[in-house]
Write a structure and sequence with these properties.
The protein has 11 helices and 10 strands. Helix 3 packs antiparallel against helix 11. Helix content is 43%, strand content 20%.
């Protein structure tokens, strides 16, 4: 009886020792798992006019790498303010130099990372069935009561649009007709829905819609060059991943996508 009891104790102690070893080993391994599972991630704040092209490029890039790309689209001025207020952004792509210059002056850009990504053109659009507007001067017609324009202070397309109207000596005359929008895509929506007679957008925005027609293209001399600078933020916590994605954006696969959507180089 005593032998059986001692034998039972030995077995119990052995089982407990085995379970203890398993428990200790599993807990030693636990901290390693998250590091192994973690993938690089890049947060990109970009002008909303890039939305369609960048969406397609994201799909291409994520298929080739383990990096997760997260976009924050909006008016370049609004995105600039978010960055100034400490938003966790790795890469910024603006639709004008103005916003990038402002961040540069505040020493917020990583040195040597700023470059021009793509260029664009500005066009005058109307609802598809609107045929009475063929040129910028036609905006003065009494039948034209509302013209959509991005807010010039925060929307680069609005800034360029105001320059075009000023070039044609139309800005002051048309001010009572202008309806300001929060970004260039809202201008497009206003025209698509017929809430305005016309609007000023990028040619790339116009090409995304079957509900509008391009009435006129603004000549190059009528506005500042439409460039999209990009740069990595100095505060980026994913510098290497951001650099790799920036490199991909200027590569041939991305260029093919940008060209498809009407961007130029």
């Amino acid at each position: 009886m005593a032998n059986n009891r001692r034998h039972f104790v030995r077995i119990s102690l052995g089982v407990l020792g085995f379970l203890s070893a398993i428990y200790t080993l599993s807990h030693k391994l636990e901290p390693i798992q998250p590091a192994l599972a973690q993938s690089p991630a890049v947060t990109v704040s970009a002008a909303i006019s890039l939305k369609d092209a960048l969406g397609e490029i994201k799909t291409l890039y994520e298929k080739q790498t383990q990096t997760k790309i997260t976009y924050n689209f909006g008016a370049s001025g609004s995105l600039q303010q978010q960055i100034e207020q400490g938003a966790p952004v790795d890469l910024f792509i603006s639709a004008a130099n103005k916003q990038m210059d402002a961040l540069d002056k505040q020493n917020l850009l990583a040195p040597g990372t700023r470059q021009v990504l793509v260029r664009n053109q500005l066009v005058l659009i109307t609802p598809k069935n609107e045929t009475g507007i063929q040129k910028f001067a036609d905006l003065t017609q009494p039948a034209v009561t509302k013209i959509a324009l991005g807010e010039p202070k925060s929307v680069p397309a609005g800034q360029y649009g105001a320059e075009v109207l000023k070039f044609y000596n139309l800005l002051e005359v048309l001010k009572p007709k202008i309806v300001y929008a929060k970004d260039v895509r809202q201008v497009l929506t206003y025209v698509e829905t017929g809430n305005v007679n016309a609007g000023l957008v990028y040619v790339t925005d116009a090409k995304t819609s079957q509900k509008v027609r391009i009435a006129a293209t603004a000549p190059k001399e009528s506005h500042a060059p439409i460039v999209y600078p990009m740069a990595i933020l100095k505060t980026s916590k994913n510098m290497n991943a951001a650099q790799s994605f920036a490199k991909f954006l200027v590569g041939n696969p991305s260029k093919a996508v940008f060209k498809k959507y009407g961007f130029i180089f």
